[in-house]
Design a protein that fits this description.
The complex is a heterodimer of chains A (about 110) and B (about 120). With about 110 residues, chain A is mainly beta. Chain A is about 0% helix and about 45% strand. Chain A contains no helices and nine strands. Chain B contains no helices and eleven strands. Chain B is globular and about 40 Å long. In chain B, strands 2, 4, 5, 6, 9, 10 and 11 form a seven-stranded mixed beta sheet that branches. Classes of the chains: A mainly beta (about 110), B mainly beta (about 120).
Chain lengths: ~110, ~120
């Protein structure tokens, strides 16, 4: 049972917009930044979004993040086949004094 | 090029010990917090521990407290994870990751090293 809650799966057709939710509490998302990672099959995770909604250089602007209260979401617009991957949200948890991950969402491009 | 390379994984019996290493290059190692994150086979990511630049602060996930010890040698640009009293549920790929100074977040990650705890 992960501290942050994500749907196990999401899907869309090429060109569509898909959103992935991440739900937490006041000790993590509610009081700290949210980060998103993309993990392609068989590879190490890659930072996709930092500080709720900022993209590192090199990340396409098709990826966007947002946060409201104790929830956050990742949106992928103009869906492409290469976006098929697992996506994880992360936040620092003040109560646990540690980073907490969501369980991950597998994105399928139909 | 910023790079992290883990080593030290392998097969170990329950109750045994293992020491993981992570060699860093391409950046000023002693400017960054560093973390270990693991991923059990077919499962999601789990943060394990992190350590401050000067080793003055260390944090652990509850499941490894008292069994795992994170350390670093800034002179050798290296991060370590000493794992004792290993259990089957510690079986995972262990990644080391740099915590970015500006903006935060784990970036980059190493390629990971596999630890299997089994008799």
């Amino acid at each position: 049972q992960s501290v942050l809650t994500q749907p196990p799966s999401a899907s869309g057709t090429p060109g569509q917009r898909v959103t992935i939710s991440c739900s937490g509490s006041s000790s993590n998302i509610g009081n700290n930044y949210v980060y998103w990672y993309q993990q392609l099959p068989g590879t190490a995770p890659k930072l996709l979004i930092y500080r709720n909604n900022q993209r590192p250089s090199g990340v396409p602007d098709r990826f966007s993040g947002s946060k409201s209260g104790t929830s956050a979401s990742l949106a992928v617009s103009g869906l492409r086949s290469e976006d098929e991957a697992d996506y994880y949200c992360v936040a620092w948890d003040d109560s646990r004094s540690g980073w907490v991950f969501g369980g991950g969402t597998t994105l399928t491009v139909l | 090029e910023v790079q992290l390379v883990e080593s030290g994984g392998g097969l170990v019996q329950p109750g045994g010990s293992l020491r993981l290493s992570c060699a860093a290059s391409g950046f000023t190692f002693n400017n960054h917090w560093m973390s270990w994150v693991r991923q059990a086979p077919g499962k999601g990511l789990e943060w394990v521990a992190n350590i401050k630049q000067d080793r003055s602060e260390k944090y652990y996930v509850d499941s490894v407290k008292g069994r795992f010890t994170i350390s670093r040698d800034n002179a050798k640009n290296s991060l370590y994870l000493q794992m004792n009293s290993l259990r089957a549920e510690d079986t995972a790929v262990y990644y080391c990751a740099r915590e970015r100074k500006e903006g935060g977040g784990f970036d980059p990650w190493g390629q990971g090293t596999l630890v299997i705890v089994s008799s």
